[in-house]
Design a protein that fits this description.
The protein is α+β, with helices and mostly antiparallel strands. Helix content is 42%, strand content 16%.
Length: 167
């Protein structure tokens, strides 16, 4: 319970700067990825890792952290689907790639407590999907030998559909 309250407090604080000075319109407009595009991203991310000899799982979450697509390669570990989802969720929740979050929250860092937020996973491999300067989702990959390799495969997944995203 205490951890959930801490997470809610942190989320509220992160939302304050965005809300300050905004128009008080009763509705908010946003963009999100189509599920078909999310499926293409996970397929491309898994294929990119497979080409390097890695068996992984890849997930895409929408801008709210809700999973849209998940693909686990045939020999990827049983932990990889949940880990891929958590990495993608962490990226959208903190509005940052998880490799940067891993560094910012390492032991002894002032923000190290963020590692204890339920569901957060501060390991490389969660990459934001941004369109026209707005976060529309994230790709998470798990199962390669390192967070850097996971992130490279996630970026390959995004690159596979980049020609259809207005950057």
């Amino acid at each position: 319970m205490r951890e959930t309250l801490a997470a809610l407090a942190l989320a509220s604080l992160l939302a304050l700067p965005a809300a300050a000075g905004e128009d008080e319109a009763p509705l908010v407009d946003f963009r999100t990825l189509r599920p078909s595009l999310a499926h293409e991203m996970v397929a491309a991310a898994v294929a990119a890792c497979r080409e390097k000899g890695y068996q992984v799982a890849a997930a895409v979450v929408d801008r709210f952290g809700v999973p849209q697509a998940l693909l686990r390669d045939v020999l990827a570990g049983p932990h990889t689907p949940a880990t891929a989802i958590r990495k993608a969720w962490t990226a959208v929740s903190f509005r940052s790639d998880t490799a940067a979050l891993a560094e910012a929250t390492k032991a002894g860092a002032i923000d190290s407590g963020a590692r204890f937020i339920p569901g957060a996973l501060m390991l490389g491999g969660g990459v934001l999907v941004e369109v026209e300067g707005r976060i529309v989702g994230a790709v998470g990959v798990s199962g390669s030998p390192s967070g850097q390799e996971d992130a490279a495969c996630a970026k390959a997944g995004i690159a596979a559909v980049a020609d259809r995203l207005p950057f």
